[in-house]
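In the current project phase, the collection of sequences with tokenised folds has grown. One resulting record follows, to show the layout:
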Amino acid sequence: MKTPWRISIWAELLAEFLATGTMVAFNDGVVGLAVVGLTMSGRTPAIFQGAGDWLIITLGSALAVAMGIYLAGGISGAHMNPAVTLAFALNGTLRWRKVVAYWIAQTLGAFAGAGVVYVDYARAINAWNTSHHIVSRSSAGGLATFSIFATYPASYFHGSLWGPLVDQIIGTFFLVLFILAITDRANRGVPNNQAPLVIGLAVAAIGISFGADAGYAINPARDFGPRVFTWLAGWGRNAFPGPGGYWWVPIVGPFLGGSMAPLIYRTFVAHSIVVRDNASRSVHPTRPAETRRDAAAE
């Protein structure tokens, strides 16, 4: 008997595609607002005057992630991030046979999300380039509008990719670490309907703490899908290979950082919860698990 597709992996892949596309549309959209939308509409005089635009971007990115999880979390978990998918597989909460399929759906969703932003902001992008005398999107001046869609390293690295790579490892490590803690019902955690918002806050925390080095992609699909789109849309070498050959950093770094988090979380937190619960259960066999953990801590 055939399995209806809505209870098969195809439903999960469609959910990942839609959730990732929505997340990227709003994530890239808020950058588009800050870079070309507000400036070219006459609503603000210049880009990045102080920290205000960065706060707008971090808040928008946080809400984008939260809305994506609310949208499809009940079907696929709304990973929206290949590094998260890999971490869940390493943690034993996702079957390995689904991993590559999730990656493909996420990357295609990110590509589509970038397309939505481009359709909406194409005139503002062209107006920005005209007003700044930028003839080619693939020129050095085209990096400003390229940044709407994908990331590149800060100038103070002077072309070195080791600093941005470490930055992506650190940022994604914390992202996955927070997701594991927030979704761990044995830990303090949060109610299920609040988890997307708290995960969004985790993204905001990373953005306002570690975002400047490399734009905190912390997600291979979120960077690679839009990067492919921009390459096709005329940003050329700004997309591939990127400044200093940067294109691979937001892929490798997040995979490395995200892969480290499950081991660290299990070693430092999760195993201790299990041991303490078992110990308190033997002393207070009828008390709820949360109360038993409090007793074990006394």
